[in-house]
Amino acid sequence: MRVRVLLVDDQPLIRAGLRVLIADVPDMEVVGEAGTGAEAVRLTREVVPDVVLMDLRMPGTDGIQATRQIIAAGGPTRVLVLTTFDDDEHVHGALRAGASGFLVKDMALEDILAAIRVVAAGDALIAPGVTRRLIAEFVRRPAAASRSRSLAGITDREREVLTLVGQGLSNAEIAEQLVISVATAKAHVARLFSKLGARDRVHLVIAAYETGLITPPG
């Protein structure tokens, strides 16, 4: 099955370029385009894409607000941010809103296509240079880091797994560290998704910092 993509950008030339790019690959298709955040929210409800490729700065409802509304609706659609701006506030705002990935527009076209596939498959991806350090710095700020997440209902083993996910370990590396099978590690991660309401590993990393399992640097 092909990945169904909704393009969201207020610049028609950007949308046209992305549409041509996606048209050249057999495993994807563009199912709609939007030039504003409000239109993106409406079209997501109508066509239910697998991935929304979302710009951030748009008139009216911006990309962060649109992402928040799309994710809050609880559907299967995932949001992959593609923007010119990779400063801390834009990264944190997008991840907080529920985006499953964050890319910058100067990335290679093949990398953008690969990121769409990664996010559609249920994983998360952040562009090189937009690192976990930024997430750590964000949740360290008193205004943003409320420590509101609770670990109630999380087992001791799941707490260990969450800590290792927060450190950036893969399922295979977690299995090796805890001397368990990869399948068991994967099952623990899946339960953490459910218990913490996280959509992917990026948001498990945020949870690890927010709950104090990992102390931000500095």
UniProtKB/TrEMBL annotation:
<feature type="domain" description="HTH luxR-type">
    <location>
        <begin position="147"/>
        <end position="212"/>
    </location>
</feature>
<keyword id="KW-0804">Transcription</keyword>
<protein>
    <submittedName>
        <fullName>Response regulator transcription factor</fullName>
    </submittedName>
</protein>
<feature type="modified residue" description="4-aspartylphosphate">
    <location>
        <position position="55"/>
    </location>
</feature>
<keyword id="KW-0238">DNA-binding</keyword>
<dbReference type="Pfam" id="PF00072">
    <property type="entry name" value="Response_reg"/>
</dbReference>
<dbReference type="InterPro" id="IPR039420">
    <property type="entry name" value="WalR-like"/>
</dbReference>
<dbReference type="InterPro" id="IPR011006">
    <property type="entry name" value="CheY-like_superfamily"/>
</dbReference>
<dbReference type="Pfam" id="PF00196">
    <property type="entry name" value="GerE"/>
</dbReference>
<keyword id="KW-0805">Transcription regulation</keyword>
<dbReference type="InterPro" id="IPR001789">
    <property type="entry name" value="Sig_transdc_resp-reg_receiver"/>
</dbReference>
<feature type="domain" description="Response regulatory">
    <location>
        <begin position="4"/>
        <end position="120"/>
    </location>
</feature>
<dbReference type="InterPro" id="IPR058245">
    <property type="entry name" value="NreC/VraR/RcsB-like_REC"/>
</dbReference>
<dbReference type="InterPro" id="IPR000792">
    <property type="entry name" value="Tscrpt_reg_LuxR_C"/>
</dbReference>
<keyword id="KW-0597">Phosphoprotein</keyword>
<dbReference type="InterPro" id="IPR016032">
    <property type="entry name" value="Sig_transdc_resp-reg_C-effctor"/>
</dbReference>
